[in-house]
Amino acid sequence: MMAMLSHTHRSDSRKLQMKLNLIAFAAMAGLLVIAPFAIYPLLVVQILCFALFACAFNLLMGFTGLLSFGHAMFYGWSAYIAGHVSKEYGATPELALLFGMATGAMLGLIVGALAIKRQGIYLAMITLAFAQMMFFLAVQMHAITGGEDGLQGIPRNRLFGLIDIDSTGRVYWFALGVFLLAFLAMWRIKRSPFGENLKAIRENEPRAISLGCNTARYKLAAFVLSAAFSGLAGSLKAISLQLATLTDVGWQISGEVILMTLVGGVGTIFGPVIGAVVVVGLEQMLLGFDDWIPVIYGSVFVLCVLFFRKGILGQIQHVFQKD
Amino acid sequence: MDHLSIQLIAGQVLIGIINGSFYALLALGLAIIFGMLNIVNFMQGALYMLGAFMAYIVGEHLGIGYWGALIVCPILVGLFGIVLERVFFRAIYDIDPVYGLLLTFGLAIIIEGIFRIIFGSAGIPYSIPDSLRGGINLGFVFLPYYRGWVVLVSLVVCLGTWLAIEKTPIGARLRAATENPGAVRTFGINVPLMVTCTYGFGVALAGLAGVMAAPIYSVSPQMGTSILIVTFAVVVIGGLGSIVGAIVAGYGLGIIEGLTKVFFPEASSTVVFVAMAIILLLRPKGLFGRMA
């Protein structure tokens, strides 16, 4: 009887949670629709790309419990490839995004297969090292990446060969559409049986193994998905902002995406989006004091790790769950 | 093989051994700290940079010169590390070690950022001490005295540390505390003090490497992070828990890097990472490592 009661209670709270999430999604979408009328649209696009990137990163860190310190390689290299195919072969934006995602997925498959041979802290070091290797390759492979100059003036070709997106106003709606679709897709993945398995691995891997779950395969799949969506974020950035440079593939970006996820709330659905807003907002506030940005980021890192490990959204949820 | 190419190879191998000396010192510090604190110290690179800047500040401006700096700077860096350990690390010992990496990453970019604000990104020149200028022609290779000195110091420090940990009573306690801190504490040994001292020693090694690097590489705020990431690969190859692994992999990869510069220069910046990939395929726990 007690068990049944608590079961109905739990499913009630799940329904409530779902309802709250749907309201939050509607609110987020609504805010994003009016945002470009209040804020410079390309700045919001930048937030959208980072938010998408952080959500993709959260797929791995938050939902599977694997810390990658090298996600810049997926973001940056996808930006290069999407930019390259748009520039050199006139690829349409949807194709460029697909190429970018495929780049992320392929890199994710190779790096992931090697990295998940070790766990925890090793995984972070291995991914960081591979990302550095991909950074050096980006410096050397001028033909694709443009070396030190990067790719500039990447054309915004017609969407599906038909729709003109080549203006600040239009590209915003394109970026928003891609973001919302990808966000829903990742949310769906989290709620799927596959996502439940990832959660089981995060909570207790030996137990998941003993229940017959092939955890290595699941971890690799999560790694590839996370890399693919990071790739989508990178290529969206390349097309919308028309730029792909060494900055996108450097270790600082890997740190930034961790920071966004950590600030917003690791493992929450909307946390990474909030984190992206906070980080880009900080950057804007510090315009003109660029030198201070690393110091501020570092301090936020330290404060989050010491006092605020749940992040903004995690902390809010924690307070509400207590009542 | 003609005479010239032997000289070329010997020259690059020598450069490799010198780079390897720095990898080995940094990896050794990482290994000792990881063994005792279960933390991957991302600050190791920033503290190496701090050592190099201190050699410049203390050595040039306080007038104690290179030799004074060589003694004073590692001690100062070690003390600085001890302060950071006491202030920041207590809160994270009992949680996932991943947070240790994130915390030290945050501290590292703060330190690096502050130095960039003060000194800018451009390098600062630091000259070789007068007594170690010049060099000797060994026939097959020209050995600058200073570089020979760096290799010598690094070898002595690495071997000395290894011997101290493997053969002395203090080292035995350290190994025991690494294995089972709870049990060692019941024997009346002050484990937290040991942890703090270990951290201080580990980062002092980074400081020492920094002082010795100052006359060779240009002293700049970003010098630490780039070498640290290579050192991470070195540590993965050697096996993170292993002192011997850190030393052998450090020198070994330096030499491999040097040889790559001769035969396939385009790959010289990436060869260490390729080596890491191969090791992960063939022997995931590292050359000398135990599986974590």
Itemize the secondary structure elements and their pairings:
The complex is a heterodimer of chains A (323) and B (292).
Chain A: H1 2-38, H2 41-64, H3 72-89, H4 93-115, H5 121-140, H6 142-145, E1 151-152, H7 168-191, H8 193-203, H9 205-210, H10 215-241, E2 243-244, H11 251-264, H12 271-285, H13 293-307, H14 311-322
Antiparallel strand pairs in A: 1-2
Helix pairs in contact in A: 1-7, 2-7, 2-10, 2-11, 2-12, 3-4, 3-5, 3-10, 4-5, 4-10, 7-10, 8-10, 11-12, 11-13, 11-14
Chain B: H1 3-37, H2 43-61, H3 65-88, H4 97-119, E1 135-137, E2 142-144, H5 145-167, H6 169-179, H7 181-186, H8 191-213, H9 223-238, H10 243-263, H11 271-282
Antiparallel strand pairs in B: 1-2
Family (chain B): Belongs to the binding-protein-dependent transport system permease family. LivHM subfamily.
Transmembrane segments (chain B): 6-32, 39-58, 64-89, 101-126, 146-165, 227-256, 262-282
GO cellular component, one term (chain B): plasma membrane
